[in-house]
């Protein structure tokens, strides 16, 4: 073996380190580019069919299980609207319908009644994003509104600003929290937990750029409404069969 | 608790309140600061002689309140250690970030006014005191005897 | 319409299991009723038969109707795609209707249409169209229903069992059916005897 001089040793080890470092740097991008999720290639939408909802509350329960939502806070919930014969409208949502509903009025006292699932509407023009003082609330390229938990200050301005009551301050993390459309699932091609849990297929989620998706076709076939259109938040959640009394 | 009978309906998340007494304290204190500043300006800027006895005192009390106006807001935050992000990297569409900048500049203006109006006192304290306090007043004057 | 996640929660997060703090595999009557009734309890707000998407709903007391307090899976298998009880099937006994006998051998065995309709309505689900007790529902029952072809008891005893129930599984029908109806049903059951 030829004896290495000090200079040669340093030169050789430098080359080896540089080569190894370069390989380590390039390798991950080669491996992951095949399966990398490109957020510019999707745009998500959500539809809720009021006629299908039976108020079982499995959506609220599944969301809580999937996302570890703390007690007495809700990322999604179901409201029951009961129209009494005297014209009054009574709205209730016992524990966000997490345990289902019990009877409140008898059938002969009611004109009509129905259930309305509610959640974050992931608006196209969201108030929560506008009012965040540090920019922790943001919209992804797919249209999902998320909260950056590393920068959120917990001032609750976004909670005040949301007209749909979709946000809350997480008691342990002390940051704002809300429905994320199960971002950790949809980026892997799965459905959000609430969509899967619904036994009546009242909730549908999909890519609205994909013309074969249920969401795209439902919006095309049905007359859709949104919650509080006068506020110009332009929500992405479309309701089919929404009643005028729904708040 | 979740069925408020006769009072209508509230979204389940909105049964939790976040902006309560601590947020109320903030505009109360800023109101005190602004009012005190106006009183002192009536004399120092507009020359109303009737308010001369109270003018300097109201100015220094405005300064005193300015030091603690941020405290209720800081206690209310979930992450007070990140609070200064609102000034360093503000999101400019937000009214809260905008007001952070406005009130910070108001605080700077107030400090400037106090520095100018109380110059005779600062010079006297810089000469008569010793140690750290002397250093503080000397720094205000930017002259170190 | 139904997929696993509806009852069991998303992926492998067991929504059912997470609530059963005992950790055992047995599901109690209360637990089964509370889970099934979450969707199937009759509430005025739920879409009725006139809606675009009707849904089967029950009022628990009416549904149980003298069968006592049973867990839902005693009669309905939640994992079977077809949750409805089987359709009634024509049996040899059905060929003798309205008391008329078409064969000389079965001259003494006359079957009334009323008896048959009561049997098909109330008894068929567990006892089967042929009275042999080989039904899907019976697989969950213990003890299992007997094979009526091998009946040894008489009409009056049958009437007694139908009216007052027998053992743990056969409920009492005296509150639901009149004495006449019970007799008709017992007469139909006797027709299965060989």
From TrEMBL, chain A:
Cite the entry's keywords alphabetically: 4Fe-4S, Iron, Iron-sulfur, Metal-binding
InterPro entries reported for this sequence: 4Fe4S_Fe-S-bd (IPR017896), 4Fe4S_Fe_S_CS (IPR017900), ET_IronSulfur_Cluster-Binding (IPR050954), TAT_signal (IPR006311), TAT_signal_bac_arc (IPR019546)
Q: What Gene Ontology molecular-function terms does this entry list?
A: 4 iron, 4 sulfur cluster binding; metal ion binding
Q: Which residues form the 4Fe-4S ferredoxin-type domain?
A: 44-73, 111-142, 143-172
- Record-linked Pfam families: Fer4, Fer4_11
Matches recorded under PROSITE patterns: 4FE4S_FER_1, 4FE4S_FER_2, TAT
| Keyword Disulfide bond applies | no
CDD domains tied to this protein: PsrB
Report if keyword Iron is assigned: yes
Write down what this protein is called.
4Fe-4S ferredoxin
Q: What is the lineage of its organism?
A: Bacteria, Candidatus Desantisiibacteriota
Automatic annotation (TrEMBL), chain B:
User: Which Gene Ontology cellular component terms are annotated?
Assistant: plasma membrane
Membrane-spanning segments: 18-45, 57-75, 95-118
Places the protein is found = Cell membrane
Does the keyword Ligase belong to this entry? no
| Top-level division of the source organism's lineage | Bacteria
InterPro entries named among the record's database cross-references: Electron_transfer_protein, NrfD-like
Q: How does it sit in the membrane?
A: Multi-pass membrane protein
Assigned keywords, A-Z: Cell membrane, Membrane, Transmembrane, Transmembrane helix
Keyword rRNA-binding attributed = no
Report the family membership: Belongs to the NrfD family.
Protein known as: Polysulfide reductase
What species is this protein from? Candidatus Desantisbacteria bacterium CG2_30_40_21
Lineage, top ranks: Bacteria, Candidatus Desantisiibacteriota
From TrEMBL, chain C:
A Pfam family the protein falls into: Cytochrome_CBB3
Please give the superkingdom of this protein's source: Bacteria
* Stored PROSITE patterns: CYTC
Q: Which residues does UniProt call coiled coil?
A: none
Keyword Magnesium applies: no
Any one GO MF term held by the record is: iron ion binding
Q: Which InterPro entries match?
A: Cyt_c-like_dom, Cyt_c-like_dom_sf, Cyt_C_IC, Multihaem_cyt_sf
What spans are recorded as compositionally biased (Polar residues)?
A: 93-103
In residue numbers, the region (Disordered) covers 81-111
Keyword vocabulary terms for this entry: Electron transport, Heme, Iron, Metal-binding, Transport
Can you give the residue ranges of the Cytochrome c domain? 110-193
**Name this polypeptide is given:** Cytochrome c domain-containing protein
